[in-house]
TrEMBL record:
GO terms for cellular component: extracellular space. Keywords: ATP-binding, Kinase, Nucleotide-binding, Transferase. GO terms for biological process: phosphocreatine biosynthetic process. Transmembrane segments: none annotated. Residues 65-149 form the Phosphagen kinase N-terminal domain. ATP binds at residues 177-181, 240, 284, 341-345, 371-376. CDD domains: eukaryotic_phosphagen_kinases. InterPro entries: ATP-guanido_PTrfase (IPR000749), ATP-guanido_PTrfase_AS (IPR022415), ATP-guanido_PTrfase_cat (IPR022414), ATP-guanido_PTrfase_N (IPR022413), ATP-guanido_PTrfase_N_sf (IPR036802), Gln_synth/guanido_kin_cat_dom (IPR014746). Its EC number is 2.7.3.3. This is arginine kinase. It comes from Caligus rogercresseyi (Sea louse). Belongs to the ATP:guanido phosphotransferase family. One of its GO terms (molecular function) is creatine kinase activity. It is an enzyme of class 2 (transferase).
Length: 383
């Protein structure tokens, strides 16, 4: 007999076959059919048995959302002297790293990305939504207590009564300008590290309408970054009013996603009342003016915060995110509570001659924090 090989097909034919006589071929064909029928019958029986079990309810399929995954490998935290390095232990990491928050699917790995990426962070952690502070409380609460110098039993109190400001800056001090700002976040949206593109656009849309309701010396115009002409952008940057992209912490922390969509700046006609939309926080409400009239700047700020909050609530029914323990919620835990920072642009001749470390040490002794003329990441000018 002559053997003729051919390739195997999907029907699982043998690799080779033989040409035989007619009767032999018929017998082999019959055996093949019989074997195929047995296989098919067996498969059909198994299928029927599975269906029987399923229909009886002995086996059922159930789906539930996954909010916890196996722990990821413990990261190399490059900022070894940061608060993250101290409070994100291996034990806490194994317990919390598999959790995803309900609001935005934020994780502990995303929260500490800056402390992992950079070696010079002091705090090194961000919250992606209000759930982050609860889901990762074993990290956030002791870190917050250490940074803010409060006991674990702390709770938030707020007092925006400008009448309690008794003094002011010495009029003879070389103060160029005074600036006080607060951060605010709106209910129902993720914080900047975890906010979705659509949520960011929704925040901007809501704020455009809310700004239109402001009256008197607070009324003004909103300027979206997307499509802003170069002349307007340059002027706002030169006036130190406009925030820009390129901050490494905001980028690694996920806050510059989809730049510049959904972002912009509002300011009144005098440019003494401003609001940033969707930078590090959903809102940065700012009062500023030339000179050292701290009380006047604070009075305008308190008035503006209330007006913006009332307008947001009137348009959407939403309020600013306020936790009874943590206060007003922000992306960075260093801003929790009032979310307030007061600063002056002042000449300090000779203070930097010994270098920035000496300047920072001297400021710490006075409970002050030196910052660049263009913000936290900017540099100082002069000597």
């Amino acid at each position: 007999m002559r053997r003729t090989p051919f390739l195997q097909s999907k029907k699982r034919r043998p690799i080779a076959t033989f040409h035989c006589c007619s009767k032999e071929r018929e017998r082999k064909k019959a055996r093949a059919v019989s074997a195929r029928e047995r296989r098919n019958a067996g498969s059909f029986f198994i299928f029927c048995r599975c269906m029987e079990v399923l229909l009886r309810g002995n086996i059922y399929f159930h789906y539930s959302p996954v909010d916890s995954w196996p722990a990821a490998p413990f990261p190399n935290i490059r900022s070894g002297h940061s608060l993250v390095a101290k409070h994100v232990t291996k034990e806490k990491w194994d317990k919390l790293s598999g959790i995803e928050t309900k609001t935005s699917g934020f994780t502990l790995a995303k929260a500490i990305a800056c402390a992992v990426e950079f070696d010079d962070q002091h705090c090194g952690i961000y919250a992606g939504d209000e759930d982050s502070y609860a889901d990762f409380a074993e990290v956030f609460i002791p870190l917050i207590c250490e940074y803010h110098g409060v006991p674990p039993s702390f709770s938030h109190t707020s007092d925006m009564d400008s009448g309690k400001i008794k003094g002011n800056i010495n009029p003879d001090a070389p103060v160029h300008s005074t600036r006080i700002r607060v951060g605010r976040s709106i209910q129902g949206f993720g914080l900047s590290p975890g906010i979705t593109k659509q949520q960011r656009l929704d925040v901007e849309s809501l704020m455009k309408t809310a700004f239109g309701n402001l009256k008197g010396d607070l009324s003004g115009s909103y300027f979206p970054l997307l499509g802003m002409d170069e002349a307007t952008r340059t002027q706002l940057v030169d006036d130190h009013f406009l925030f820009v992209s390129g901050d490494r912490n905001l980028k690694v922390g996920g806050m510059e996603r989809d730049w510049p969509e959904g972002r912009g700046i509002f300011h009144n006609k005098e440019k003494t009342f401003l609001t940033w939309v969707n930078e590090e926080d959903q809102l940065r409400i700012i009062s500023m003016q030339k000179g050292g009239d701290v009380k006047g700047v604070f009075e305008r700020l308190a008035k503006g915060i209330k007006a913006v909050g009332d307008s947001v609530k009137a348009e959407s029914g939403k309020e600013f995110l306020l936790d009874p323990k943590l206060g007003y919620l922000h992306s960075c835990p260093t801003n929790l509570g009032t979310g307030m920072r007061a600063s002056v642009h002042i000449d300090l001749p000779g203070w930097t001659k010994e270098g920035l470390p000496a300047l920072k040490k001297r400021c710490e002794e006075l409970s002050l924090q030196p910052r660049g003329t263009r913000g936290e990441s900017g540099g100082q000018t002069g000597g």
